[in-house]
Amino acid sequence: MDLTKIETLINFVGRSSITELTVTENGTTVRIFRDGSSASSSSAAEAGGTREQAAQTTNAATGVSHSGTVVDAPIFGVLHVASAPGDPPFVAVGDQVVEGQTLFIIEAMKVFNRIAAPRAGKITRLTDVKGAEVEVGDMLAEIA
């Protein structure tokens, strides 16, 4: 099975509500799974209407007042904040970003997935995870 197919399967699992997918092709089996912890953020988004409203609701419940677009990890993998070790990070708190600008790279199964800004705005929060694993649904950044 080629890496393009595997990347497509990973993205499919990340976008869907399924928790496990096993595919066998030409004697090669790929098993992609995630835990159910991201279900709470998905249900909050469905109940609140938009991801921004879900972020406001979640933060209000914890007593923290943030409002903006939350950028979550769409897949499980290792989070890279720069294009190479020693390079400056893609973004920092306070930076203005444009829609489609690269914020992070998540490495999953030796495939590098670019995480882009869903809209233009100012970075108000960033994850403190750098070079470590992130789970589907982990907050990576917030754009106001």
Describe this protein's structure.
This protein is α+β, with helices and mostly antiparallel strands. It has a single domain, classed as OB fold (Dihydrolipoamide Acetyltransferase, E2P). 24% of the residues lie in helices and 33% in strands. The chain has three helices and ten strands, in the order αββααββββββββ. The strands form three sheets. It has a four-stranded antiparallel sheet with strand order 3-10-8-5. A four-stranded antiparallel sheet has the order 7-6-4-9, with helices on one face. Helix 2 packs across helix 3 (51-62). The longest helix is centred in the N-terminal third of the chain and has 13 residues, at 3-15. The radius of gyration is 16 Å and the shape is elongated. The N and C termini lie far apart (41 Å). Mean pLDDT is 76; it is low at 37-65.
Which SSEs are present, and which pair or pack?
Elements: H1 3-15, E1 20-25, E2 28-33, H2 39-48, H3 51-62, E3 69-72, E4 77-80, E5 96-97, E6 102-108, E7 111-116, E8 121-126, E9 133-134, E10 139-143
Antiparallel strand pairs: 1-2, 3-10, 4-6, 4-9, 5-8, 6-7, 8-10
Helix pairs in contact: 2-3
